[in-house]
C-alpha cells in the first residue's frame, strides 16, 4: 500500500460549487500534515497545514481524521483561479507527498 | 526576490554528460531537499540535508550526488546523465521547528537526449 494516496481526478466543478478531496495515509506515526497547491509546471506552494482540530482559511477548510487515517480539503465557492493540482503531504521523518488531485473549475 | 532560487531553469543535455543543478535560499533554513517530479509519480525525494555537514539519501538517489556548500546552497549533480533522468527537479527548504512546512524553488526542467 502506498504511504499516501489521492484520487488523481480530475474533478470538474462549476464556479461557486463546493468540492472536497481526501487523502489517505498508511503510517499512523505521521506527525504533521499539509495541503500544497501546484499550478501546471510550477512549484508546489503550501496552501495550509492541517491541525488536529481542523482549520479554516477563508474558503478552504482542512480536516484530519487520525482514526481513519485521512485528511481532507474542502473548497467552498470555487473560483476559476482554484484550478490546480492539490497535493497532500505528511511528515514522519521526512515529508511524503501524494501524487495530487487535479481540480478544474469551469465557468 | 524569490526566497529559493534554482539554476538553470531549463537544460537540455546529452546522455553521458555531467550536469549540476544549483539551489540557493535566503530563508535561513537549515534543511534542504532535492526532489524530482514525473507525471503520475508525484514528487520523489532524491537527497536531503539537515545542515551543512549532513547528507542523506532519499527514495531515489542512484545516479545522483549532492553537495551542501553552505547553509544557503545545495547542489545536485548527475554524474552521467541518462534519458530516464528527464524530469522536473525541485529544490526545497524547511526549518527545524514546528510543522516542517517546505518551501520550493521554481524548478529546473531537465531533458536528457
Chain-wise SSE layout:
The complex is a heterodimer of chains A (107) and B (113).
Chain A: E1 4-6, E2 11-14, E3 19-25, E4 32-38, E5 45-50, E6 55-57, E7 60-65, E8 70-75, E9 84-91, E10 95-97, E11 101-106
Parallel strand pairs in A: 2-11
Antiparallel strand pairs in A: 1-3, 3-8, 4-5, 4-9, 6-7, 7-8, 9-10, 9-11
Chain B: E1 4-7, E2 10-13, E3 19-25, E4 31-38, E5 42-49, E6 56-57, E7 64-70, E8 73-78, E9 87-94, E10 103-104, E11 108-112
Parallel strand pairs in B: 2-11
Antiparallel strand pairs in B: 1-3, 3-8, 4-5, 4-9, 5-6, 7-8, 9-10, 9-11
Please describe what this structure looks like.
Chain A is an all-beta fold. Chain A is built from no helices and eleven strands. In chain A, strands 2, 4, 5, 9, 10 and 11 form a six-stranded mixed beta sheet that branches. In chain A, strands 1-3-8-7-6 form a five-stranded antiparallel beta sheet, with no helix packed on it. Chain B is mainly beta and 113 residues long. Helices cover 0% and strands 54% of the residues of chain B. In chain B, the strands form two sheets. In chain B, strands 2, 4, 5, 6, 9, 10 and 11 form a seven-stranded mixed beta sheet that branches. A four-stranded antiparallel beta sheet of chain B has the order 1-3-8-7, with no helix packed on it. Chain B is globular, with a radius of gyration of 13 Å. The mean pLDDT of chain B is 93. Chains A and B meet through strand 5 and strand 9 of A and strand 5, strand 9 and strand 10 of B.
Amino acid at each position: 500500500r502506498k504511504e499516501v494516496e489521492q484520487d488523481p481526478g480530475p474533478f470538474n466543478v462549476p464556479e461557486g460549487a463546493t468540492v472536497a478531496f481526501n487523502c489517505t495515509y498508511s503510517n499512523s506515526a505521521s506527525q504533521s500534515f499539509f495541503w500544497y497547491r501546484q499550478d501546471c509546471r510550477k512549484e508546489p506552494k503550501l496552501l495550509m497545514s492541517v491541525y488536529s482540530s481542523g482549520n479554516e482559511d477563508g474558503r478552504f477548510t482542512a480536516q484530519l481524521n487520525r482514526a481513519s487515517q485521512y485528511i481532507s480539503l474542502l473548497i467552498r465557492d470555487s473560483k476559476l483561479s482554484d484550478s490546480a493540482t492539490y497535493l497532500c503531504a505528511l511528515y514522519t521523518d521526512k515529508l511524503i507527498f501524494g501524487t495530487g488531485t487535479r481540480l478544474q473549475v469551469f465557468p | 526576490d524569490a526566497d529559493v532560487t534554482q539554476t538553470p531553469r531549463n537544460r537540455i543535455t546529452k546522455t553521458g554528460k555531467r550536469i549540476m543543478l544549483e539551489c540557493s535560499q535566503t530563508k535561513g533554513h537549515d534543511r534542504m531537499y532535492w526532489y524530482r517530479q514525473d507525471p503520475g509519480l508525484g514528487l520523489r525525494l532524491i537527497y536531503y540535508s539537515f545542515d551543512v555537514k549532513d547528507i542523506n539519501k532519499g527514495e531515489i538517489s542512484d545516479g545522483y550526488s549532492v553537495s551542501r556548500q553552505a547553509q544557503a546552497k545545495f547542489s545536485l549533480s548527475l554524474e552521467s546523465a541518462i534519458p530516464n533522468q528527464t524530469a522536473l527537479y525541485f529544490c526545497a527548504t524547511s526549518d527545524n521547528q514546528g510543522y516542517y512546512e517546505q518551501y520550493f524553488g521554481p524548478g529546473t526542467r531537465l531533458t536528457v537526449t
